[in-house]
């Protein structure tokens, strides 16, 4: 995995330094291992924890419930992770990257079904 594939987590690690932490998950063991190596080689491994987990299928780990300041979803089907992501958040600060309008529509529907208020689209 190249540094450009981990750009989002690298960027967030800089944003949370020196006292915060980024938790990132990949369902593929080999990509997660490569990401760990990448974070170590760039010196941000103390700020980033890489886990192996299918967030769409399993959701986020319960031990992080209510601890996250924000959640960033870059998944093929982000709407599947919305209920679990909401449980992780201290307050509603969720970003989902979706290149297709169909993904955006389904994600917005999941947000409306799981949270009060209206999602903001950018």
From TrEMBL:
Q: Does the keyword S-adenosyl-L-methionine apply?
A: yes
List the Gene Ontology MF annotations in alphabetical order.
tRNA (adenine(58)-N1)-methyltransferase activity
Alphabetical UniProt keywords: Methyltransferase, Nucleus, S-adenosyl-L-methionine, Transferase, tRNA processing
Q: What class of enzyme is it?
A: transferase
Quote the EC number. 2.1.1.220
Compartments annotated for it: namely:
Nucleus
GO cellular component terms, alphabetically, are: nucleus; tRNA (m1A) methyltransferase complex
- What protein am I looking at? tRNA (adenine(58)-N(1))-methyltransferase
From which organism does this entry originate?
Salix viminalis (Common osier)
